[in-house]
Amino acid sequence: MKKIGVLTGGGDCPGLNAVIRAVVKSASAKYNCEVIGIEDGFDGLVLPNKTRNLTPWDIRGILPLGGTVLGTSNRANPFKYRVIVNDKTEVKDVSKEVIKNFQSLGLDALVVIGGDGSLNIAHELFKMGCPVVGVPKTIDNDILATDVTFGFNTAVQTASEALDRLHTTAESHHRVMVVEVMGRYVGWIALETGIGGGADAILIPEIPFDIAKVCKKIIDRKKSGNRASIVVVSEGAKPIGGEVSVLCASEAGGSAERLGGIGNKVGADIGKYTDMEVRVTVLGHLQRGGSPCAFDRILSTRFGVAAVDMISNKRFGEMVCLKGQRIESVSLNDVAKGQKRVPTEEGLVKTAESIGISFGR
Ligand code: F6P
After folding, report:
1. Average pLDDT over residues 206-216
2. Catalytic residue of the set 43, 140, 142, 296
3. Which uninterrupted H or E stretch holds 112?
4. Most buried of the four, 121, 301, 312, 342, by CB within 10 Å?
5. Do 213 and 183 belong together in one domain?
6. Among 184, 195, 196, 158, residue whose Cα is nearest residue 281
């Protein structure tokens, strides 16, 4: 193991730089191994001049930095790569070129830090003979086979702090505050933000909601003297029998379907059925930005170190993961099997219901 590559793919999230730092530091100190940073996700293995040496000197000071110093892309899938031919966009499979470029860089292995999309690409490249290891990142916490992804706890912290602020203005005006949070098709961010930020109702994709039940909760609170309520809505939540709210459809070789809009729909319905004043806040990319919390810095560091150890042990085609307190690894094949959804009949959902939080069911 003389030279390894590292890239960050998909949407950014707090903690990416902490992983890059750990990869560079441990590769250098433990294995005397060189690290090449690949820029803008898989784009860096398709387009020329998008790689650079990363020495321990280069990564000084990046532990608390949000985003990724390498840049990222969620439109750079080598198996469905968008190219412009005669002014027209075409989608091509450039995976063989990626393997060739990986080889001409003289790399012994590639660390792919990414969410489900990038890890699936890593898995496909592995099947073509590329020695990859994966590191699970995403604020959504939806990756199978790891208890938690880095970035998630920071996002929950940011969103919970937003709820604290909304409580004070909601109380002053006796309003209902609806807060739409990210999370794609799973409700982890909404669930933990709602509990951490003291919400009265939490709507998640795993539990299609009945708006009448949400409104009853708010009206009951009003009757008992609580004239303000907070409702956290996951962007992927939907009413019973209804559809997920989509802002933009997915594009071939481009970004995935973009969710959003359910917060405003829920807000409008609550206003109509409770006759209370409602305001809607969409937290959006605020949840992805900023410095990682200490938990995420530590998890990212553990993941980065473990990824380099896995390369040294030739554990290719695997992803580092957290199981309880232990860092382990799991086959990328198992990761590709689906999404980690919130269990609806145990754990945190039950805890929340025990303290009176409504899920609209
Ligand atoms: O997967 C992370 C995430 O932030 C989701 O929660 C959200 O739906 C999506 O990415 C937003 O993506 P983009 O940055 O492309 O708008």
Report:
1. 98
2. 140
3. strand 109-114
4. 121
5. yes
6. 158
Q: Give the CATH number, domain containing residue 88.
A: 3.40.50.450
Residues in CB range of 177: below 8 A, 6 or more apart: 166, 167, 169, 170, 228, 229, 230, 231, 278, 279, 280, 281
* CA atoms lying within 13 Å on the CB side of residue 68: 28
Place of tokens 């590329």: 130
- Name the residue among 274, 305, 150, 140 with its Cα closest to residue 212: 274
What gap in Å lies between CA 129 and CA 151, rounded to an integer?
30
- The overall average pLDDT reported for the chain is 97
Which pLDDT does position 50 carry in this prediction?
97
Type of residue found at 193: T
Which atom belonging to ligand 1 lies closest to the Cα atom of 189? 6
Give the residue with greater pLDDT, 350 vs 84: 350
- For the stretch 259-273, pLDDT in tens is 999 999 999 999 999
- Catalytic residue status for 140: yes
Say whether both 94 and 228 belong to one domain: no
Query: 9 alpha carbon to ligand 1 midpoint, in Å?
Result: 12
The domain containing residue 12 runs over which residues?
A: 3-150+292-324
> Residue 48 domain-assigned?
yes
Summarize pLDDT for 147-177 with one digit per residue, the tens. 999 999 999 999 999 999 999 999 999 999 9
Instruction: Note whether 117 and 12 are same-domain residues.
Output: yes
Query: pLDDT at position 255, please?
Result: 74
Does 120 contact ligand 1 (Cβ within 6 A)?
Answer: no
Q: Which of 141, 153, 163 is nearest to 231 (CA)?
A: 163
- The count of domains in the chain is 2
Residue 232 tokens read as 């956290």
**pLDDT score of 254 more than 90:** no
Q: How far is the CA of 153 from the centre of ligand 1 (A)?
A: 16
Judge contact between 321 and 299, C-beta under 8 A. no
Q: Are strands 34-38 and 3-8 parallel, antiparallel or unpaired?
A: parallel
pTM of the entire predicted model: 0.97
User: For position 53, what pLDDT does the model report?
Assistant: 98
* Judgement on whether residues 163 and 217 belong to the same structural domain of the protein: yes
Whether the CB of 183 sits within 6 Å of ligand 1: yes
